[in-house]
Amino acid sequence: MLYSGLIRKYRQYLPVAEASVITLNEGNTPLLPSIRLVEKFKLPIRLYYKLEGLNPTGSFKDRGMTYAVSKAHESGTRVVVCASTGNTSASAAAYATRGGMQAAVVIPQGKIAFGKLSQAMIHGAKVFQVKGNFDQALEVVKQVAANPKVTLVNSINPYRIEGQKTGAYEIVEALGEAPDYHFIPVGNAGNISAYWAGYQRYLEEGRCTKLPKMVGFQAAGSAPIVLGHPVEHPETVASAIRIGNPASWKMALAAEKESHGFIAAVTDAEILEAFRLVAQLDGYFCEPASAASIAGVLKAAEKGYFKKDELVVCTLTGHGLKDPDNAIKVSEPPFEVEPRAEAVLEKLNL
Ligand code: AN7
Question: Are 306 and 45 in contact (CB under 8 A)?
Answer without folding.
Answer: yes
